[in-house]
Amino acid sequence: MTHVLFDLDVLRSFSTGVALGSYARAADKLGRSTSAVSAQLKKLESQAGTPLLRKAGRGLELTDAGQTLLAYAHRLLEINDEAAAAMRGADLEGWVRLGLQEDLGESLLPGVLGRFARAHPRVRVEACVARSAELRERLALGQLDLALTWEVAGSAPLDHAEQLVRLPLQWIAPAAPAALDTVWWTELQRAGPRKSREPLPLVMVDAPCPLREIVTTVLDRAGIPWRHVFTSASLAALWAATSAGLGLSARPAFGLPPHVRVLDRTGTGLPVLPQIALSMARAQAEPEAPVARLADLMREAVRESAIGR
């Protein structure tokens, strides 16, 4: 029996092309010619023994086999990169104090910190999950080395910060359609949000919260009545209230749990919400090696997650 040995370099081209939506852009990012990447894809399909891509309009989309191989490619490349990082930083030692907001903590911490801990077992990481205002204060006081925060228009710029991605705020609803079998949802569907006899019920983070102010300002400008039906400092509590059908919430579609979903605005009359930015700030312009390495992993994880949205 002949064993197929997939070339990691080829798998990286395949994965990058899918992530960027274009193999020409993948070639540019990887420093290769488009023809070289095309040859790699032909080699990969030959090894797989089945088509991995098919035409869809003017572009390409993955076949079922392509979806399967992409999942394995991600795992193989992650292990390879983790091993390479471990060899480069085998003697890395130190301490990193990391700050995140709750939705980022749930979606990023398990994968990124697991990879970091395996590659750099001598580095101690302390993670703090808090709201943006507290993370900003801790950075200013020198209590954090690295922090990821959601930033809105008008936010004071953080020192040594970079914007990682911009994402639109989305209306968040229960994942189970039966949870929307409520008086307010029926009235919203019947009359629309402006003429509804039921003010739009909102499930939001406790004040002060910039996202809460953004949402209510957008609704006021649209002439849509609203009321707070549930507030909490805990994001998990907000998702529980939203999934129960108490009202709608609003967050970026990042790290959503399975019992809530982004609401399709079609036919609802709900306004479009603006974008907000996710920034990463460091306490020092030139951080120590452990902080810089964790920052690299965080940056990569955020951008990979955002590409899929």
TrEMBL record:
SUPFAM superfamilies xref list: Periplasmic binding protein-like II (SSF53850), Winged helix' DNA-binding domain (SSF46785)
Ranges for domain HTH lysR-type: 6-63
PROSITE patterns, A to Z: HTH_LYSR
Signal peptide boundaries: none
Keywords: DNA-binding, Transcription, Transcription regulation
InterPro entries assigned to the protein according to its UniProt record, in alphabetical order: LTTR, LysR_HTH_N, LysR_subst-bd, WH-like_DNA-bd_sf, WH_DNA-bd_sf
Domain of life: Bacteria
UniProt similarity note: Belongs to the LysR transcriptional regulatory family.
Name used for this protein in its record: LysR substrate-binding domain-containing protein
Organism the protein comes from: Variovorax ginsengisoli
